From TrEMBL, chain A:
This is Sodium/hydrogen exchanger. Residues 646-717, 739-829 are annotated as: Disordered. It comes from Oncorhynchus kisutch (Coho salmon). It is a multi-pass membrane protein. The keyword Flavoprotein does not apply. The chain crosses the membrane at residues 12-32, 103-126, 132-154, 166-186, 206-223, 232-255, 275-295, 316-340, 360-378, 390-413, 428-446, 455-479. Belongs to the monovalent cation:proton antiporter 1 (CPA1) transporter (TC 2.A.36) family.
Automatic annotation (TrEMBL), chain B:
This is Calcineurin B homologous protein 3. GO terms for cellular component: cytoplasm; lamellipodium; nucleus; ruffle membrane. It is found in: Cell projection, Lamellipodium; Cell projection, Ruffle membrane; Cytoplasm; Membrane. SMART domains: EFh. SUPFAM superfamilies: EF-hand (SSF47473). The keyword Nucleus applies. Its main location: other. Belongs to the calcineurin regulatory subunit family. CHP subfamily. It comes from Oncorhynchus kisutch. It holds the Pfam family EF-hand_1.
């Protein structure tokens, strides 16, 4: 089942890849020299030029139908793009064959190295790299995936806890760097020995803006590996994200300014104003599109297969619209992703959610990989203008200003932080300012009107090489050497979650109590607003969900999956039946056989019903739609497997049970009177409390992931027999008879799980089976007695009808299902 | 305590500052707030805290308020609850939320950790018996989830049970079926929360400037 899910996910991912490529390659046609033969005919666009026909038959003099033709020009652009992507991806695979390489050397270094090699090869055969990386291609197609990825995977909670610092570093820090480096470079340019006096202030500022875009992917992956403390991580993460936005704004501004002959003071003022308009406008657009996207996904429950598309389209739309008004498109797409993530992930199905994450990640990685790869190639294949003085001073100044900036900015921000940055943090923060893909792409796409473009390109490449190779490689040993404070960031226990919530609430409470407020106060207020208004509008099934519950569900699901993974192999192993029988004999009570056969029958039916559902689900996957609700069924089946497993001989006290089912380590029914483990194990349990909580929980989960009602019903253990209740009683009886007629090994195998489950796990005796109670099973309503001892074994004495009646009184204990009673009576021997 | 009435009473403040680690400004602000809450009385009662409007929405309001009247949080020996607290005790309880110093040795850090966790533990352990029983745990989880709307009590129960089992499996390792886990002791509590960086989380940035009036205006305008 899981492989199937994976497959369909992959299929979808591949589809997206194709679409992405087509989109990517579309403009390449128009921006390169190749005559625009629409590559879109692959899937998306109709063939635009029917006039391309003659090209398919190049030799006109030959009137015969050509048997074999080739038309490379037609496919050249998408073909080459595909090959480039493929090559870069192969490189990525290659690095991970020997994982120690990526441990010590950041991936970006390796990519650049591979690019260098490829560039060398291309240079030696005098091949030009495809000119795909133009200004428009970069800004319209390569940048959005990168920033969408960072925006979407931004850890929301720590981000908002540190939002002030993040923005402080991103905005003020970048401004500081750009202006500082620009000014001092201009000063350096005045030194005659370097022969760069022709670079004016505007160009220097433009270059400085480019060079101050930090891109610490490599650093972040190191941070993740050594689990550096959360505050540092999020500041570096957020800084690289928002400083892209700032850089691009500055870049566009300075490109404009660089063309101006004279810069007047009013222009500076306008520039500042524009800066804010651009930034805040982008944010506004992002928020709007984010909310629209969330609102849209409210209604996509019936079109699960295109659900992920909305996320991409809306974020891309936000980006494009922002571009249209030339406000910060990065800001727009990032805020869009941040805004919608929370709501969308609650609205869409689990599968769509996974797909979204995968595709976002994939597109971002491809883009970045390509840029780094390209950087390597371009380093070799373009002409450089080498100027020792300028390059060295740039390197030096970038380092110095970055260091100074971090020192000064932390001094200012520290008094406002609950956890101030200490010196080690500051050092790593300053040292982690690697330059990367964005800088390169920006400088590569500089307009040719900039006189010293080649020098800028060379300097930027040097800068990237220096930071990525030297700083990138040395940062891991450095972090370990100076022993930066670390946080364990993968805490996934319920206790930790409960207590973090408890702490948060306590702090918010005490803050209220002492009449002071900080971000907990605002967080509290926002949460209230969110729960009261936003969620109602944006989320289909609006019920506020605590993160404790979410984690609980997640852990339960994980647990269930684990169990399936460990035992999935032997669903119909015949030997287990034998062992079951032996186990039963061992406990030495009469009538055991009866019970077993009886239960086998009923579970035969159950499993058959279930299996049908499964088959239908499988059938769906072959069509165009995705299976919407297979996951719940998966869980159901997994639960069965888990029950079966727990019933294997020897597994009751065996160590393997404790190992795989970590929540079951307490025996059910002990004085802890924890109803939790039994509730998970016996879904036919008739304790009211358990059934209630089970129902609550399952329905809650189904609401969360699979809002369709039918699926939730399928998952509710109590309602499994619905199909039977719906059919006329006679046919039920027939069915039952047929079932009891004995089925194949498979049926038994499946049935065994349930039969055994109920016979050991269902605690309370089924009184209505007692002959003394007669046909009236009304007394079964009081079976809520909590003892779940082994005497559960003494249950059904009478054959099938006993079982048929059960769901009725289990559903709502005590009240009888009128439909079932006649059945009971007729079948009473 | 009458001496505390005047803000300029330095020796009194100095003693408190030494005891709790707050700065004079912080003490001054907190004292102002204390008097505001207690309606210019010397002693603060539960009823005073119950009327704070901002606190009304807090799901664990009762636990928080109880913590202020719990003798165990006063850095003194003895347990049980009191009916009213003085400013000094108010300040001592508040000092549990003081952010740690920038440079701490490992021992100091561990001490701060234990203190903060002790505070949390005491919030759970309502009957002062040194263990968090399942009932107590359940109660807290129910309260925590009580604002989540549709979630039934049963879910909360289930989660508390699961959490308890988790504690049992973490702290006791593999248990025999007939073993019984009575409750979480403080040692186990430390163990299960060892990954959580409480010294960086359970902090309030006590302000050095006075925002009480601002805050109150703000909160009254919201309501």
């Amino acid at each position: 089942m899981s492989t199937m899910g994976g497959l369909s996910q992959m299929k979808l991912a591949v589809n997206f890849l194709t679409i992405g490529l087509v989109i990517l390659s579309l403009p390449c046609g128009s921006y390169t020299e190749i005559p625009p033969k629409p590559p879109g005919s692959v899937t998306v666009l109709p063939p635009v030029k029917p006039a391309g026909g003659p090209q398919a038959f190049p030799d006109a003099e030959n009137s015969n139908l050509p048997v074999f033709t080739m038309d490379y020009a037609r496919i050249q652009v998408p073909f080459e793009v595909t090959l480039w992507v493929l090559l870069a991806s192969f490189a990525k695979i290659g690095f991970h064959v020997y994982h120690k390489i990526t441990f010590w050397v950041p991936e970006s270094c390796l990519l650049i190295s591979i690019g260098l090699i490829v560039g060398a090869i291309m240079h030696s055969v005098h091949e030009e790299p495809p000119a795909v990386l133009s200004y428009n291609v970069f800004f319209l197609f390569m940048l959005p995936p990168i920033v969408l990825e960072s925006g979407y995977f931004m850890p929301t909670r720590p981000f908002f806890e540190n939002v002030g610092t993040v923005l402080w570093f991103a905005v003020v820090g970048t401004l500081w760097n750009s202006i500082g480096i620009g000014m001092s470079l201009y000063a350096v340019c005045q030194i005659e020995a370097f022969e760069v006096q022709d670079i004016n202030l505007q160009e220097n500022m433009l270059f400085a803006a480019i060079i101050s875009a930090v891109d610490p992917v490599a650093v972040l992956s190191v941070f993740e590996d050594v689990s550096v403390n959360e505050q540092l991580y999020i500041v570096v993460f957020g800084e690289c994200l928002f400083n892209d936005a700032v850089t691009v704004v500055l870049y566009n501004m300075f490109i404009f300014v660089a063309d101006m002959p004279v810069v007047e003071p009013v222009d500076v003022f306008l520039g500042v104003a524009r800066f804010f308009v651009v930034g805040l406008g982008g944010m506004g657009f992002g928020v709007i599109f984010g909310f629209v996207a969330s609102f849209t996904t409210r209604f996509t429950s019936n079109v699960r297969e295109i659900e992920p598309l909305f996320i991409f389209m809306y974020s891309y739309l936000a980006y494009l619209v922002a571009e249209l008004f030339s406000i910060s498109s990065i800001m727009a797409i990032v805020t869009c992703a941040l805004t919608m993530k929370y709501y969308v992930e609650e609205n869409v199905s689990q599968r769509s959610c996974t797909t979204i994450r995968h595709v976002v990640k994939m597109l971002g990685t491809i883009s970045e990989t390509l840029i780094f790869f390209f950087l390597g190639v371009v380093t070799i294949t373009t002409e450089h203008e080498w100027n020792w003085g300028y390059i060295m001073f740039t390197l030096l100044l970038a380092l110095v200003w970055r260091g100074l900036g971090v020192l000064v900015l932390t001094q200012i921000i520290n008094p406002f932080r609950t956890i101030p940055f200490n010196f080690k943090d500051q050092f790593i923060l300053g040292y982690g300012g690697l330059r990367g893909a964005i800088s390169f792409a920006l400088v590569f796409t500089l307009p040719d009107s900039i006189g010293r473009k080649k020098l800028f390109l060379t300097t930027t490449i040097c800068m990237i090489m220096f930071t990525v190779f030297i700083q990138g490689i040395s940062i891991r040993p450095l972090i370990e050497f100076i022993n930066v404070r670390r946080t364990n960031r993968n805490l996934e226990t319920i206790n930790v979650e409960i207590h973090s919530r408890l702490i948060e609430h306590t702090i918010a409470g005490v803050e209220d109590l002492c009449g002071q407020w900080s971000h907990y106060y605002w967080k509290d207020k926002f949460l209230k607003f969110n729960n009261r208004i936003l969620r109602k509008i944006l989320i289909r099934d609006n019920r506020a969900e605590s993160s404790i519950v979410a984690l609980y569900k997640k852990l339960e699901l994980q647990n269930a999956m684990e169990i399936l993974d460990t035992v999935s192999g032997d669903i119909n192993a015949g030997s287990s039946i034998v062992s079951l029988h032996e186990e039963k004999k061992g406990s030495g009570k009469p009538k055991r056989k009866f019970v077993a056969a009886d239960l086998m029958n009923m579970h035969d039916i159950l499993s058959k019903n279930m299996y049908k559902i499964r088959q239908r689900t499988t059938a769906y996957t072959t069509k165009h739609s995705l299976p919407n609700d297979s996951r719940t069924k998966e869980i159901l089946i997994r639960r069965h497997t888990s029950i079966r497993r727990s019933l294997r001989p020897g597994s009751f006290n065996g160590p393997n049970e404790a190992k795989s089912q970590k929540y079951f380590s307490l025996p059910p029914g002990k004085s802890l009177d924890s109803k939790f483990p039994p509730q998970r194990l016996r879904h036919t349990g008739n304790d009211d409390d358990e059934t209630m909580s089970e129902m609550d929980y399952t329905s809650a989960r189904s609401r969360f992931n699979q809002p369709s009602r039918s699926s939730s019903r399928a998952m509710l253990p109590l309602r499994r027999l619905n199909t039977l209740k719906e059919v006329p009683s006679s046919s039920v009886v027939d069915l039952v008879d047929e079932m009891s007629g004995g089925r194949g090994a498979w049926g038994r195998g499946m049935s065994r799980l349930n039969s055994s489950s109920s016979d050991s796990r269902i605690p309370a005796p089924r009184r209505h089976h007692d002959p003394s109670n007669g046909p009236d099973n009304g007394s079964s309503g009081d079976h809520g007695s909590g003892d779940n001892g082994p005497e559960g074994e003494q249950q059904p004495l009478s054959p099938t009808p006993a079982w048929a009646a059960e769901p009725g009184d289990r559903d709502d204990s005590g009240t009888q299902k009128p439909l079932l009673r006649p059945q009971w009576k007729t079948r009473k021997p | 305590m009458g001496a505390l009435q005047s803000l300029s009473d330095e020796p009194e403040y100095r003693e408190l500052a030494e005891k709790t680690g707050f700065s004079f400004e912080q003490i001054g602000i907190l004292h102002k707030r204390f008097k505001q809450l207690s309606h210019n009385e010397d002693m603060l009662r539960r009823a005073d805290l119950n009327t704070i409007p901002d606190l009304a929405c807090n799901p664990i309001r009762t636990q928080i308020i109880e913590a202020f009247f719990d003798k165990r949080n006063f850095h003194q020996n003895g347990d049980g609850t009191v009916e009213e607290i003085s400013f000094e005790e108010f300040l001592v309880v508040m000092s549990h939320f003081r952010p740690p110093a920038l440079n701490m040795t490992e021992e100091q850090r561990e001490k701060v950790r234990r203190e903060k966790l002790r505070f949390l533990f005491n919030m759970h352990d309502t009957d002062n018996d040194g263990t968090i029983t399942l009932e107590e745990y359940r109660h807290v989880v129910e309260e925590l989830l009580s604002r989540s709307g549709a979630l039934g009590k049963e879910t909360a129960k289930g989660i508390a049970d699961a959490a308890m089992l988790e504690v049992a499996s973490i702290s006791m390792g593999h248990m025999e079926p007939d073993e019984f886990y009575e409750g979480i002791t403080f040692e186990h509590f430390l163990k299960i929360l060892k990954d959580i960086e409480i010294e960086t989380k359970m902090n309030i940035r006590f302000l050095n400037m006075d925002t009480t009036t601002l805050c109150n205006r703000d909160s009254s305008s919201i309501r």
